[in-house]
Amino acid sequence: MDEVEVVVAHSERATLRVGDVFLKVDPDRARIDAEVEAMSLAPVPTPEVLWRKPPVLAIAAVPGTALGRLGRPSTRSPAAWSAAGAAMRKLHEAPPPARPGRAGRSTVALAAELDDECELLVSRNVLPADLVIRNRQVAEAALRPWTPAFTHGDLQIAHVFVDDDEVTGIIDWSEAGRGDALYDVATFTLGHEEHLDDVIDGYGTAVDLDVIHAWWSLRSLLAVRWLIEHGFDAFAPGCEVDVLRSRM
Prior knowledge:
Blueprint (H helix, E strand, L loop, with lengths): L3 E6 L4 E5 L2 E5 L3 H13 L7 E5 L2 E5 L4 E2 L11 H16 L13 H17 L5 H11 L9 E3 L8 E4 L2 E5 L6 E3 L1 H9 L6 H8 L5 H21 L10 H6 L3
Helix pairs in contact: 2-6, 3-4, 3-7, 4-7, 5-7
């Protein structure tokens, strides 16, 4: 009999694995709708939707193994990272969904959220003031006009599966929609700066490195407190706080 594996669980949602089936439990129906729509439109390998009965979505496991995880060295070849970059470019060139995704928040709203979060990080002694101030300065470069693209919105390396240096599946599309393509590139390379050149080689076009660095800082600043409050360790080696320290 297959055991139930808890893949991820926190107060917002949970994902369970039973054999080759993933059960995603999410009370936010809009996120489930966005995920199903995005997987049906994306021109890259995605999981098969087996059934859905809100608040549960059942999807099939994809072949291969995840490219890696934040905070752990990736053993995958440069060719695998390059293949992921090529898949990302294919996604970004596709007609984007009508709905905005996580990477599509307005720069005005994002700047306001970032300033509020930076104030909390300092006032609650979560992070040193100089670390927050420096990374807020770096993050400013991400707050610029961008051309809407089809974005995944949470393109962590754990969400990209590969086999024999080919992308076999990309999972977790609940944050997908219209957004800034460089947000995906930055999310994918967060904590793995040594693989950025391989990803860009596969992506096939030049990217603004200042914007990538800015998104690393911005995403990390917004994530640290949430991660701590939901039982994750943002201070683990190679994770968000180390990313912030690397900008000093």
